[in-house]
Amino acid sequence: MPTATVAARRSARVPTRRADSLLLVLIALCTAVTAANIYLAAPLFPLIAHDFGSTPSAVAWIASVAQFGYAAGLLVFAPLGDSVNRRRLVGVLSLVAAVALGAGATASGTTALAAAVLVASAATVVPQLLVPLVAQRAPADRRARHVAAVIAGLFTGIVAARVLGGLAGQAFGWRWVFVGAAALTALLGLATAHALPVEERRRSGPLFSGLTALPSVVRHSPDLWRACVRQAGMFGAWSALWTSLALLLTGSAYGLSTATAGLFGLFGLAATVVAPLAGGFVDRFGAAKVVRSAFALAALSVPLFWLGGHVMWALFVAAIAVHAALVASHVANQTLALTTTSTPATANTAYVVSGFAGGALASALAGSAFTHFGWGGVCAVAGAWLVLGWVTTSVRR
User: Fold this and answer.
1) What tens digit of pLDDT does each residue of 68-84 get?
2) CA–CA separation, 122 vs 145, rounded Å?
3) Which residue from 43, 180, 182 is spatially nearest to 119, judged by alpha carbons?
4) pLDDT tens digits, residue range 38-74?
5) Closest CA to 387 of 199, 239, 233
6) The whole model's pTM is what?
């Protein structure tokens, strides 16, 4: 009888594990599609400008609108994962994003398009609602690998938006790209919401109490604080180099076309490959060792980027190295952020917003550095961000 009972329990686990694996794949696909929405307009600016009778530089500010919308959505919606039913929230946000993208496809000017992009980007925080759930449901010895699967989907979506979005826009027009993104967002968003486990309503107190609790959550968790600051340094270094790279490639040093320079976005696929490997290393060796290795790799990439100002092969190696460092650090730090407090959605919001803020500030400084000091100034900003991110967290509190 005990043997039969054990066998029955084992057979019951198989469908559960299979269902969890299918849910993880669905969440990764949903993450890829929704993350792509933030960067959807960027490769289409020449087509949009031509349609509106303008110039690409006159519509490029819409990219900043997308970033601002995403940041606002993170602060407002992501903490709700600790207090409301995620199924309903994911479904509603997916529909809002899809409707906004559809409205963008019919926009007659930059103002209307910017408004649509703002709303769509603010609603595109679905991945940050799903990551805490993935970490919560994953077995303890495979938690980082499950988180890495979602992160791999996120980076794949970003690359697809930059590369495939531009190709599809050239073939069918930018409006049809927005329509396609709206359809995929609605389809995968609603399918994911339907597949999510049923949760009891846990909210007590004000609806947006998670937002006001952010400073306290970070202050009372040294591990979370360390993860936030380190990822801000890592993401800032990556942003400084990556957002300024087109200026180097299309400038006098190489003289490449915008389309050819854009193909460097394919190096982002290195993140998709590295993410599952990083997840396995975090589960086996711990987050701290992976973060140390990632910072060492990123530090190595900075002089390679500087050398790449004159030698193309150095840029190839540096691009792969910095993407591998970024995603390895992200997997380790986000896993730590999700498991260090009793409010994972709120902690995850603090973590993502910190990284985003570090990246935005470093990008702004890198643009000014390139104007005054050239490519060497950009590399100096990236190196300084890595040093700040590591040194300020190396002292135990």
Assistant:
1) 788 788 888 877 766 67
2) 27
3) 182
4) 878 777 777 887 887 877 667 767 776 777 788 788 8
5) 233
6) 0.74
